[in-house]
Specification:
- With about 200 residues, the protein is mostly helical.
- It has five helices and no strands.
- It has helices at about 1-30, 35-60, 65-145, 145-160, 175-195.
- The radius of gyration is 46 Å and the shape is rod-shaped.
- The N and C termini lie far apart (about 140 Å).
Length: about 200
């Protein structure tokens, strides 16, 4: 029964070793910092020593040298296991530090983009207001005055009221109000001539 237990344990260790190597191969396929490469080099030699000591421990157990295996396990295998664990922790700490640095950089970039977007939106709003005022000024200049005033005059003239006084004193020549003032004057003049 003990020999069977040893073989089962040995099989589980081999399976664990295979899984460990597969995962480390995947991990190492990505880009690594110099610190990660250095830890990985140390880990390679430490893991090799650990697996050698685990194999020796299994052999001692298979040979029935339980006392020697126990001492070997407590002294050599435990030390090799602790060394491997320290390097794995160092690798995890290095990856955590890199992740924090990347996250900090991402947060900073998001903040900068947010500020840039706010500035761009503010500039766009200011430009829209300026453009709106510019267009309103052009329209007002072409009309010759306020659009509401011009609309009221057109309504009254369309109803036949030629007595309306068009205030075109500030209207530019060529504007709608200027043209309406001339039209009303001419129409009134033509009407007066026709009545005489």
């Amino acid at each position: 029964k003990k020999a069977e237990d040893v073989r089962d344990t040995e099989e589980r260790m081999k399976d664990f070793g295979k899984q460990f190597n597969e995962q480390m191969t995947k991990y190492r396929a990505g880009s690594m910092s110099e610190q990660e490469r250095q830890i990985n080099r140390q880990l390679d030699s430490t893991v090799a020593v650990y697996w050698d000591s685990a194999d020796k421990l299994a052999k001692l157990m298979e040979e029935g040298k339980v006392d020697e295996a126990t001492l070997f396990s407590m002294n050599v295998v435990r030390k090799n296991s602790n060394d491997t664990e320290k390097l794995m922790r160092a690798l995890i700490d290095e990856n955590s530090a890199q992740a924090k640095t990347s996250n900090d950089l991402a947060v900073k970039t998001v903040g900068e983009v947010r500020i840039t977007m706010i500035v761009l939106i503010a500039v766009a709003i200011v430009l829209a207001v300026i453009l709106g005022l510019f267009v309103a000024r052009i329209v007002t200049r072409q009309i010759g005055g306020e659009p509401d005033y011009a609309a009221e005059l057109v309504r009254r003239i369309s109803e036949g009221d030629l007595t309306v006084k068009v205030d075109a004193t500030r209207a530019a020549e060529g504007s709608v109000l200027f043209a309406m003032a001339r039209m009303v004057e001419r129409s009134a003049s033509f009407t007066q001539k026709a009545l005489r």
